[in-house]
Amino acid sequence: MAGAGWISDGAFTAAAEALAAALTDEERASGLLFPAISRLREVTREVAVAVARQAANDEHGADAPELAGRVAAAMWSPDYPELIPV
To answer: Which of 14, 59, 62, 69 is most deeply packed, by most CB within 10 A?
Structure first.
């Protein structure tokens, strides 16, 4: 997404901070260390955008204003056809 050739320590830090920031007050109050699995797609998108932005800040990649949209568009969507037994 960002065109980075490698992942810097700053990108790892950005991923950790984005993951921590994604934890809601309710999740934290219930004792969770990570966001609920039901929010996996939302959280992974946020983490990917944070890492891509950090890569751009590290001058390893190209930041773009539409980066969040590009990440969302590149995400795999599990759309399966309905199978009808014969």
So the answer is: 14
**In the prediction, which pLDDT does 48 show?**
92
26 vs 49: CA distance, rounded Å: 24
Q: Across the 86 residues of the chain, what is the mean pLDDT of every consecutive 10-residue run?
A: 75 96 96 95 93 81 73 86 88
Q: Is 64 helix (H, G, I), strand (E, B) or coil?
A: coil
Burial code (b: 16+ CB inside 10 Å, e: under 16) for 28-55 equals eeeeeeebeeeeeeebbbbbbbbbbbbb
What does the DSSP 8-state code read for residue 6? S
State the Cα angle at 27 between 22 and 33, rounded to 5°: 75
